[in-house]
Amino acid sequence: MASSLTKDSVRPGTPGTGKTFFGHPRGLATLFMTEMWERFSYYGMRALLPLYLVAPGGLHLNAGTATAIYSVYVSLVYLLAMPGGWFGDRVWGPRKTVAVAGLVIMLGHLTLALPSSGTFYAGLGLVAIGSGLLKANISTMVGHLYDGPDDPRRDGGFTVFYMGINLGAFAAPLIIGTIGENVNWHFGFALAALGMALGLVQFLLGSRHLADRSSVVPKPLSAEEKAGTLRKAAIWAGIAVVAYSVIGFSGHYTLNWILVPLTLLGVIIPVMVLVNIKRDKELDRPEQSKMSAYIWFFVAAAVFWMIYDQGGSTLSIFADSSADNTVLGWEFPVSWYQSVNPVLIMALAPVFAWFWLALNKRGKEPSTIVKFASGLVLVGASFFLFLAPLSIADGGHKAAAMWLVAIYFVQTVGELLLSPVGLSVTTKMAPAKYASQMMGVWFLAVTAGDATTGLLSIAGVDLNRTGIVAMEATLAVVAGVAVWMYRKRVKELMGDVR
């Protein structure tokens, strides 16, 4: 990466020494590499997780329990992005929060590498906490590198930054997945820890190139607020310790005593957050109207992510047991399927950007609502497509690998229609009072979707059954059609947002 740093003139006040990273502030290289290594560790571990949970040499759990654990874990990562952003705003500042987050993630992966089921769940918890702390704050620091929202380089900077995400996500299953599946599961988790360690070291070494404001706590807690927060945290922690001690000593403890409360929180908290914002009397009428419209997008996104994120659990477990994971007679690790999405994102994102621009010039670019509806229909179509390999497996045969690649392809196209639009509409429709919190609210749609998958798995629903897959596919398509049918009403509620 050092070879891409060139001498260039920079706007006064731009962080850095005068050198740039592809024409952007040099601090972007630091954040790019930090995010790349963090995503390398996260997606590598995530690719191994469901396979390790069901493997005879792993925890040897049934597919339902494995899916529930995976879904709870992913929902927690996105749920904790909101308190992670709060820590950056009120306690440590973004820069210190990201440094602490990197350390927590690394310790989490090292804990996962220990050959013990007890420490395994503690490791998952640490990685989820660290990822939540890092997710919101590192994006905030990218924004700090530029001269406000009108800096013409800003959008390009975020594009370069997101390339780091996909590079890490693409490489991780190929490297960590191969080591974990073919050599030793715990070596794979240790390799994820090494990736995060490399990211943390280069972040600490390169942090001098970041903007000064990244070290500032924007709205520090007062002494009274700090005492109140610590008191509430201590009370809730005490309640949890007492409750789980009673359950444990009485001999009634099972894994569901952890999974059920966490999945319920993953559904209840997003609903509570939306209700609280919607009922805020300080919002004026246009803001209230926009929030009513936003709820449509939020629910639609939750349905989308409920199906989409099963690409790492339901589809992965199916591939492990029922797919012919070979290409021209050469067998590849199941975890490699998790590299399909990021490589497709990198290939297709520029095509979509060009396509929307070309349609916009002709006045024919689809509206936000139509893109959203199309994304939902496509994710539903991907699960209708899933019915084919399921039927092949029910007939006693192994399904070809290309069936799964086709499913991931359709889901990726749906993601490119829905996810960037969702991020954009979230910032545009956010009430002024909640401007800094709304990105966390968007992440809660992922939480709600994954928590719903977790609840279904805990309830004993086999997500690899034809009937259930067909029902989920139908739900997504019906939701997409409903959004499209009510597009005029939603557009009215959106006001001046397009």
Quick structural summary:
The chain is mainly alpha-helical and about 500 residues long. It has two domains: about 20-220, MFS general substrate transporter like domains (Growth Hormone, Chain: A, Up-down Bundle); about 260-498, Growth Hormone, Chain: A. It has helices at about 25-55, 65-80, 80-90, 95-110, 115-145, 155-180, 185-205, 225-250, 255-280, 285-310, 315-320, 340-360, 370-395, 400-430, 440-460, 465-485, 485-495, and strands at about 5, 20, 25, 325, 325, 330, 400.
How does this model look, in words?
Belongs to the major facilitator superfamily. Proton-dependent oligopeptide transporter (POT/PTR) (TC 2.A.17) family. One of its GO terms (biological process) is tripeptide transmembrane transport. It holds the Pfam family PTR2. Keywords: Cell membrane, Membrane, Transmembrane, Transmembrane helix, Transport. Residues 1-21 are annotated as: Disordered. The protein is mostly helical and 498 residues long. The protein folds into 2 domains: 20-218, Growth Hormone, Chain: A (Up-down Bundle), CATH 1.20.1250; 261-498, Growth Hormone, Chain: A, CATH 1.20.1250. Helices cover 73% and strands 3% of the residues. Strands 1-2-3 form a 3-stranded antiparallel sheet, with helices on one face. Strands 4-7 form a two-stranded parallel ribbon. Helix 3 (81-90) packs across helix 4 (94-112) and helix 13 packs antiparallel against helix 16. It is globular and about 60 Å long.
